[in-house]
């Protein structure tokens, strides 16, 4: 009954109902969208996995506390000794070449090489076929499990796919299963095409090292805790096992284990602090929306005061009135929640728009699962309780006789309450705007950070992988020289080179155990130094300065003196006050003579400071994967078609992958800043809109209530500009009080995102000044319309009406 009457009342008042539904829907939608991202990328990143809360991720603990991959012999030792884990599995993603069924060409695909108990540890039940058996790992059985998407794309979803063959590299693999839909592997945010035993790594062309080599750290680990076993207990046991194994092997320094939750690794580790701050901001916006709606409900209650008083006088109980008003609030919230879910459905995939180009296949499906729906329902209920209970209770306790006598005291009380709600809206808006401003300022600061190389927007990158074309690594140097010769002659290309890795991406340069001539490390000092193989002219092409000596040229070949160029950070750290030229380094492939000192660059992040790097010639240490670097005269992507044609002419089977500009590539270094800046700016705009609406509502109501007073003042000769100034001044006082309260709260909340900011503190004065001006401007603008209306009052008409 109450719902039916409430629906009729709302239909008769669309000018009230529509703003409420829109306000609530936008605020709830923003909040639920961020929770959807948090749920699918951090809290529950592995769909189809049983009891994901019991999973832990495993790594080698580096000397500085950072996570290193695990060597296969080390992983096996942990697997034998650990008792707090039900099981452990190892995995590593790799790009491989797949022969089509017609055997005409090789196509690149992403495979995850895994230990035999991978699917068992994750508790994944395959809808078609089976997973791997532990004995298939030991016997190097040529088997493969397809992802659901790969099965549908390449086999048309044929249930008879089991037993068919898939040629990967040099191995003919038998398809034994298809993974469930939605499961794309344990590398969060990245989609795998299929899984195969990691003991097949050589046959599929992934790595040339030996699995028995303890120095070959390349695996990630995942484990499932025994029921009731805490993360702390797992950490303590596995750390002890790892330390004992490392000491027995004679490692220096002794290495231990790193045990973390899945959300603390990869994409989850990158975005969790930011998502937490976003969720707090959207919660703040939801509170501001509730304050706005409460204001609207109070205004509506004031307009309906006589109606409610008459109902009470005719025998309606106060409980009945409260239930009636709450029914209206519940109905409004139901429509608001529906709008919110529509917003979530449309906006959930917008996260992918902030991810820069990368070599992996992005996988962020963002389903609206039961937890997302439950969360949305819970936040809706909380919102109803916040904005619906107090106005309903207040209306229910109003004395009908007081209202029917037309006493203005209650109106004054409502005005004060509504003003307090506007102050709270302003304060909450400050938090949203400050965080958005901090990320925008951080993005601006990031653009000014010296990278160490020049004009990345004029450099074209194009990656190739020899194994995908069936080309042996031994052909790499000759093929590279031919490519450099041909590409260097392209119109619009100033210079060209190549490198095994590109700085400031999601991968970065790898660290290698290093011996340094003339340097005696401390007992437990790690000597893992970043290493990258580069082609002749690399430093000239990127614009990296050479402070001493020379860079590589085409004479630095495999049959000549092994040479290296080191960064200034390397020279200052290991050879202080000495001449590095002519000294030697050994990174596992023999001693190399230093022939040059290169200026420092940002290697992994914009916070890098003088990172030690060893550069070696690609022509002396050929890599199976390298990236061409072309410095161009104009927009680099315009040269992509011509580059593809030259690569095909050089070698018909050589694939060209991931063609992008260096500027796009280094977007990985500012990914969180761009994500935070973009999303928080949109949220800040919403908060500003709500704040302006709140000020407008309060001022419009105040003008209506004081209409007689203003008519009298105008009749007595008061200039209209004074009335306008008084009304706008009242709005600015409310805004100023909200600014003071909100600024204090924003300074505390800013600590949540301090680690995500570059070159900006959480109390950045420019940000706070801009927010102050924006809110005062919105407050003044929102009050101006009611102020103008007040000055147009006809004094005689007002006095006749009263």
Describe this structure as you would to a colleague.
- This protein has 23 helices and 24 strands.
- It is of the alpha+beta class.
- Strands 15, 16, 17, 18, 19, 20, 21 and 22 form an 8-stranded mixed sheet that branches. Strands 4-5-10-7-9-8 form a 6-stranded mixed β-barrel. The chain has a 4-stranded antiparallel sheet with strand order 14-23-13-24.
- The chain is globular.
- 46% of the residues are buried.
- Residues 399-413 have low confidence and may be disordered.
Which secondary structure elements does this structure contain, and how are they paired or packed?
Elements: H1 2-11, H2 14-43, E1 55-61, E2 67-68, E3 70-71, H3 72-81, E4 85-99, E5 106-114, H4 118-122, E6 128-129, H5 134-138, E7 143-146, H6 148-155, E8 165-168, E9 171-178, E10 194-197, E11 217-225, H7 231-249, E12 256-260, H8 266-303, H9 305-313, H10 318-347, H11 370-396, H12 400-404, H13 409-447, E13 459-465, H14 476-488, E14 493-499, E15 510-513, E16 515-516, E17 528-534, H15 538-542, E18 546-549, E19 563-567, H16 568-574, E20 584-586, E21 591-598, E22 613-617, E23 625-632, H17 640-650, E24 657-661, H18 662-665, H19 671-705, H20 707-715, H21 720-749, H22 765-791, H23 795-801
Parallel strand pairs: 5-10, 7-9, 17-22, 19-21
Antiparallel strand pairs: 1-2, 1-11, 1-12, 3-11, 4-5, 4-8, 4-11, 6-9, 7-10, 8-9, 13-23, 13-24, 14-23, 15-17, 16-20, 18-21, 19-22, 20-21
List keywords for this structure.
single chain; 802 residues; alpha+beta; eight-stranded mixed sheet; six-stranded mixed β-barrel; 23 helices
């Amino acid at each position: 009954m109450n719902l039916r009457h409430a629906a009729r009342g709302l239909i008769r008042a669309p000018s009230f109902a529509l703003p409420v539904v829109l306000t609530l829907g936008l605020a709830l939608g923003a909040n639920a969208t961020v929770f959807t991202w948090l749920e699918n990328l951090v809290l529950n990143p592995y769909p189809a996995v049983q009891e994901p809360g019991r999973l832990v991720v495993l790594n080698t603990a580096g000397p500085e506390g950072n996570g290193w991959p695990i060597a296969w012999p080390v992983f096996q030792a942990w697997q034998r000794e650990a008792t707090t884990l039900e099981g452990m599995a190892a995995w590593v993603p790799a790009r491989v070449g797949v022969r089509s069924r017609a055997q005409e060409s090789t196509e690149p695909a992403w495979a995850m090489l895994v230990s035999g108990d991978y699917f068992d540890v994750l508790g994944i039940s395959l809808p078609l076929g089976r997973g791997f058996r532990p004995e298939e790992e030991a016997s190097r059985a040529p088997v493969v499990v397809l992802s659901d998407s790969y099965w549908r794309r390449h086999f048309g979803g044929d249930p008879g796919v089991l037993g068919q063959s898939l040629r990967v590299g040099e191995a003919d693999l038998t398809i034994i299963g298809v993974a469930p839909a939605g499961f794309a592997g344990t590398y969060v945010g990245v989609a795998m095409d299929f899984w195969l035993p990691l003991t097949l790594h050589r046959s599929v062309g992934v790595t040339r090292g030996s699995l028995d080599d303890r120095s070959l750290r390349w695996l990630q680990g995942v484990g499932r805790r025994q029921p009731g076993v805490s993360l702390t207990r797992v950490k303590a046991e596995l750390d002890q096992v790892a330390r004992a194994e490392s000491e027995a092997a004679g490692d220096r320094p002794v290495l231990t284990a790193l045990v973390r939750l899945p959300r603390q690794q990869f994409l989850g580790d990158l975005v969790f602090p930011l998502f937490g701050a976003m969720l707090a901001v959207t919660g703040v916006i939801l509170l501001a929306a509730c304050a706005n709606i409460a204001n609207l409900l109070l205004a509506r209650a004031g307009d309906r005061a006589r109606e409610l008083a008459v109902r009470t006088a005719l025998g309606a109980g106060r409980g009945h009135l409260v239930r009636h008003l709450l029914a209206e609030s519940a109905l409004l919230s139901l429509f608001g929640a529906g709008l919110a879910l529509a917003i979530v459905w449309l906006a959930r995939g917008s996260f992918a728009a902030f991810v820069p180009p990368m070599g992996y296949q992005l996988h962020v499906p963002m389903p609206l699962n039961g937890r997302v729906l439950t969360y949305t329902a819970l936040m809706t209920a909380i919102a109803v309780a916040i904005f619906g209970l107090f106005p309903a209770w207040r209306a229910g306790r109003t004395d009908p006789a007081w209202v029917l006598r037309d006493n203005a005291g209650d109106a004054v009380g409502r005005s004060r309450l509504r003003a307090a709600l506007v102050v709270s809206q302003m304060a909450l808006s400050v938090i949203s705007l400050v965080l958005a401003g901090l990320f925008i300022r951080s993005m601006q600061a990031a653009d000014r950070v010296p990278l160490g190389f020049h004009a990345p927007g004029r450099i074209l990158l194009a990656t190739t992988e020899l194994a995908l074309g069936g080309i042996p690594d031994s052909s790499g140097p000759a093929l590279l020289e031919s490519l450099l010769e041909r590409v260097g002659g392209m119109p619009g290309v100033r210079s060209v080179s190549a490198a095994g890795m590109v700085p400031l991406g999601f991968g970065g340069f790898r660290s290698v155990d290093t011996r340094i001539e003339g340097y005696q490390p401390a007992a437990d000092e790690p000597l893992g130094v970043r290493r990258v193989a580069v082609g002749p002219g690399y430093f000239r092409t990127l614009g990296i300065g050479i402070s001493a000596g020379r860079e590589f040229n085409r004479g630095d070949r495999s049959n000549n003196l092994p040479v290296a160029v080191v960064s200034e950070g390397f020279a200052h750290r290991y050879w202080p006050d000495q001449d590095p030229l002519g000294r030697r380094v050994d990174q596992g492939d023999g001693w190399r003579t230093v022939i040059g000192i290169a200026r420092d660059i940002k290697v992994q992040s914009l916070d890098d400071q003088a990172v030690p790097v060893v550069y070696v010639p690609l022509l002396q240490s050929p890599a199976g994967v390298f990236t061409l670097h072309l410095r161009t005269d104009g927009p680099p992507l315009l040269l992509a078609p011509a580059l593809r044609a030259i690569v095909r002419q050089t070698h018909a089977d050589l694939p060209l992958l991931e063609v992008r500009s260096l500027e796009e590539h280094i977007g990985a270094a500012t990914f969180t800043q761009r994500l935070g800046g973009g999303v928080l700016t949109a949220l800040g705009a919403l908060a500003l809109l709500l704040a302006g609406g709140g000020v407008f509502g309060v001022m419009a109501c105040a003008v209506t209530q004081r209409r007689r007073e203003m008519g009298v003042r105008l009749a007595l000769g008061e200039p209209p500009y004074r009335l306008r100034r008084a009304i706008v001044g009242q709005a600015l006082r409310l805004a100023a009080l909200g600014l003071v309260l909100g600024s204090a709260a924003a300074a505390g909340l800013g600590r949540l995102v301090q680690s995500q900011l570059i070159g900006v503190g959480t109390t950045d004065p420019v940000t706070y000044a801009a927010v102050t001006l924006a809110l005062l401007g919105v407050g003044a603008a929102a009050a101006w319309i009611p102020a103008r209306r007040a000055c147009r009052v006809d004094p005689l008409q007002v006095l006749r009406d009263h």
